[in-house]
Amino acid sequence: MNSAISVSTLNTQIKSLLETTFINVYVEGEISNLTYHNSGHIYFSIKDENSTISCVMFKGNAKYLKFQLEVGQKVTITGTITVYTPRGSYQLMCTKVEPSGQGALALAFEQLKAKLQAKGYFEQERKKKLPSYPKKIALVTSPTGAAIEDMKKVATNRWPLVELILIPTLVQGESSKFDIVESIKYADRLEVDLLVVGRGGGSIEDLWAFNEEIVADAIYNCEKPVISAVGHEIDFLISDFVADVRAATPSNAMEISLPDINEHRIYLDNFSTDLENRLKNLLNKKEVDLKNMYKLFEQNSLDSKFNFISEQIKVLKERYFNILKNYFQNKQSRLDLLKEQLKLSNPDNKYKNGYAQLSIDNKIVNLENLDLNDKVTLQTPKTIALCTIEDIKKQ
């Protein structure tokens, strides 16, 4: 007959068997009974339609978890079966947890995006306006990457008046998120007009520091405007949504934040030409107005009035003399006519040889008006003859 063993011995044997047999298991199930402990450990269960198994993920592994575990979430777990001897219970100690059908980073991105959106981090109303002409820009990026050189080149060509202040920052790796946060806080204390936070392109893992919540908090709490310039145009990071402005690339951040000096040169040339034309037009108008005023002044001056009166007097004099002239000419013509009539009426000039004045009762009559037996008087200056008409012949 076999000897009985203690409960502890049995549990110890089970522990040894299970932990040596199920060293590296890969299992899929749905999360339930989830607890995030203050110690940093995570306790939960996974289940399917028929069974449940307890799980634990200790702090050392939990800190590498990119997404937030949620009840009802379907996951795949890599881990080891462990037995807690005092209770005789076993559980799955998780070393790695991945969401089923979706990458951990993609899920973590969506979870954090939804969380921050609910907190109002993406609200357009809270975003700060970029200054039109920044004098100093803080660049929170790596001092050795291509991004800093691209930004310097674009800034020099676009607006050489700006001063770029580099804040050397780790932008890749597990500790980079802390360095980015400290650099943002430091840059926010400087006398700069805005911050550009970013780096060049890379994989989602390389860019992940800009998807961390503490980086989002630092950007959100920054008092100065922030441009997020991470990766390429197709890359969208949490920092892009939280920042005041998203730039497709680091170079694009300089294009967004700085005015184009060539456009301003053209504008100044056009402005100068327009101003010159406006001044010319204004001066020409004022010159015309001045000439008109001078003419008006001349017209209303004493000299003009005297000249006007003098001209009027001259006109009146000419008119008066013309009237007098016409009057005297008329009188002269009348006098000449009277003289001519007088000359014609002069008896000495009126009668010629063979001619005598014919009258009846001292009234001059025409020969054609005489009748037979009329008593007429024939008169010359020296002789008067009384006659009787005895015969009249008409021709």
From TrEMBL:
GO terms for cellular component: cytoplasm; exodeoxyribonuclease VII complex. Keywords: Cytoplasm, Exonuclease, Hydrolase, Nuclease. The keyword Repeat does not apply. Residues 5-97 form the OB-fold nucleic acid binding domain. Its main location: cytoplasm. The keyword Aminoacyl-tRNA synthetase does not apply. It is found in: Cytoplasm. Its EC number is 3.1.11.6. GO terms for molecular function: exodeoxyribonuclease VII activity; nucleic acid binding. InterPro entries: Exonuc_VII_L, Exonuc_VII_lsu_C, OB-fold_nuc-bd_dom. Gene3D superfamilies: 2.40.50.1010. Residues 121-355 form the Exonuclease VII large subunit C-terminal domain. It holds the Pfam family tRNA_anti_2. GO terms for biological process: DNA catabolic process. It is an enzyme of class 3 (hydrolase). Coiled coil: none annotated. It catalyses: Exonucleolytic cleavage in either 5'- to 3'- or 3'- to 5'-direction to yield nucleoside 5'-phosphates. Heterooligomer composed of large and small subunits. Belongs to the XseA family. Bidirectionally degrades single-stranded DNA into large acid-insoluble oligonucleotides, which are then degraded further into small acid-soluble oligonucleotides. This is Exodeoxyribonuclease 7 large subunit. It comes from Halarcobacter bivalviorum. The gene is xseA.
